[in-house]
TrEMBL record:
Its main location: membrane. This is Cation/acetate symporter ActP. Gene3D superfamilies: Sodium/glucose cotransporter. Belongs to the sodium:solute symporter (SSF) (TC 2.A.21) family.
Length: 530
């Protein structure tokens, strides 16, 4: 049995055992959606980091260091910059005003079904795009390592995903994310330590070698950042996109209070920051150790398996087949864990937001809702398999960009204004969300990535690959203008209650009515979290 097979079987068995244990502890919708809402801050922070650190943050970023050098560091800094904003702007208020999902925050303020539906569509779109990307990555990895047919590979991954989420819910997903984040840090420490050992544990010696081999180019911005506006738009999309990702925002409902939510983000920021710091040494180590090594390249000089395999080749160089197998196994566990988090967010959007909040207007039977969430997990898995099969031979990088662009342009503006601006009306929220979503979608399609790279046109209609610099201000402007021009009388809406006060109530409280100008609810103004 090969080392890769040993580690893959070990991770699969471990994930199933975690799921079995979590299934025994999951007895209610509260347990399913939020793991009972009692995760300690450090555990939730570790799970938050696990939700965010996908295979792209590991394999993809190291491959980007090998191919483009400095540009990969900019991607890391851009995403890392979003974490303090997440803690300052959203964490506490989301936890105070939501019970199971972000849509409840909107449902608590706006008694408009169209606003809720817009939020649901946006969340499902982002989640499905991410699912497709992760499934394609998992399928290609299993194809490369074990020679499995693509459909069999993604089918195996989806079966594991459905079992974990459908049976174990958020508790199983959290445990899987925590385990995966710890393993990723372990692998990053091993690889970074191995690289530095080759250079006498001297970072200046490593960077000096990088400078010599690349003639200084790997330590300077590359072609992807040559246009300042495009680089600024990329950074804005990465930073603000984090604040609108459904599977990240869902994590704020798994802790006891707002203070724990903020501390969770603090833990996640430290973990993600440490990981990206280690990636600098790993990525530049791959550039100087794997880049010139002929055994890792084909006859045409291309890296075997493509740029995403740079970390695996570096592991083989530093620690032989067992370290390479460990990195491959952790990469698979990473994809599986991110898929579980995304499936959890998608199932919540379908069963709780679409069915319980939108269709049943908050009066759904909790048991039926819980059963539907399991069915929704299966339906999401089937849809993702079919769509990933269609996209398996295409460049799907634009789907990641589109997911971040929609999150930054639709979810984030509406959430920020809902939580911080009393003047926002239902029409304003709807206008901002729809304009942001359509603008991000339209600009990505008409930009160089899709219009030229995929559709084959000579020139793009929109000159920039990253739309956030244009779509985000448009969303805010649309929300402001529609709210200012809205002359309809204030509608009565339900006051959202903190989850701790409604632990035994229906998913959406039916508190006393108030006007839209009376927001946030009086019990949350100047609220001090303990």
């Amino acid at each position: 049995m090969s080392p890769a097979t040993v580690f893959f079987l070990l991770f699969i068995v471990a994930s199933l055992l975690l799921t079995r244990r979590a299934a025994r502890l999951t007895r209610s919708a509260d347990d399913f959606y939020t793991a009972g809402g009692q995760l300690p801050a450090w555990q939730n922070g570790l799970a938050l980091a696990g939700d965010f650190l996908s295979a792209a943050a590991f394999l993809g970023s190291i491959g980007m260091y090998l191919g483009q050098g400095y540009d990969s560091l900019v991607y890391a800094v851009g995403t890392l910059a979003g974490w303090p904003l997440l803690m300052l702007l959203l964490a506490d208020k989301l936890r105070a005003l939501g019970r199971y999902s972000v849509a409840e925050v909107l449902a608590g303020r706006f008694d408009e079904r169209s606003v809720r539906l817009m939020s649901i569509i946006s969340s499902l779109t982002i989640t499905l795009f991410y699912l497709i990307v992760q499934l394609v990555g998992a399928g290609k990895l299993l194809q490369l390592l074990f020679g499995l047919p693509y459909l069999a590979a993604v089918g195996l991954v989806v079966v594991l995903m459905v079992l974990q989420v459908g049976l174990g819910g958020m508790l199983a997903t959290s445990w899987l994310q925590m385990t995966k984040a710890a393993l990723m840090l372990l692998c990053a420490l091993l690889l970074a330590g191995g690289v530095l050992q080759r250079f006498g544990y001297s970072a200046p010696a490593l960077f000096a070698q990088v400078d010599r081999l690349s003639h200084g180019q790997a330590l300077l911005p590359g072609k992807s950042l040559s246009d300042p506006l495009d680089a600024l738009s990329l950074g804005l999309g990465l930073s603000l996109g984090l604040l609108g990702l459904p599977h990240i925002l869902l994590r704020f409902f798994t802790v006891a209070d707002g203070r724990a939510a903020r501390h969770s983000v603090g833990w996640a920021t430290g973990i993600v920051g440490l990981f990206f710091l280690l990636n600098i040494f790993i990525g530049y180590g791959a550039l100087v150790l794997v880049g010139p090594a002929a055994p890792f390249h084909d006859a045409a000089g291309k890296l075997l398996g493509g740029g995403n395999m740079a970390a695996l080749h570096l592991a083989a160089l530093l620690g032989g087949p067992w370290l390479q197998a460990l990195i491959a196994g952790v990469a698979f566990a990473t994809i599986l864990a991110v898929l579980a988090g995304l499936a959890m967010a998608g199932a919540s959007a379908i069963s709780h937001d679409l069915y319980a909040l939108w269709l049943c207007r908050g009066q759904a039977d909790p048991q039926r809702e819980w059963q539907l969430s399991r069915l929704a997990t299966l339906l999401l898995g089937v849809a993702a398999v079919l769509l990933s099969t269609l996209f398996q031979n295409l460049n799907i990088a634009f789907l990641v960009g589109l997911a971040f662009a929609i999150a930054a342009s639709s979810n984030f503006p509406v959430l920020l204004l809902t939580l911080h601006w009393r003047g926002l009306t239902a029409r304003g929220a709807l206008a901002g969300g729809c304009c942001g979503m359509l603008a991000a979608l339209g600009l990505i399609i008409s930009g160089p990535t899709v219009w030229v790279g995929m559709l084959g046109h000579a020139r793009p209609l929109f000159p920039y690959a990253n739309p956030a610099l244009f779509s985000v201000p448009l969303a805010f402007a649309a929300a402001w203008l529609a709210s200012v021009l809205d002359k309809t009388p204030g509608r009565s809406i339900d006051a959202a209650q903190p989850r701790a006060d409604t632990a035994n109530q229906a998913p959406v409280s039916s508190g006393p009515a108030m006007q839209q100008t009376d927001w946030p609810p009086a019990q949350h103004r100047n609220r001090k979290t303990t």
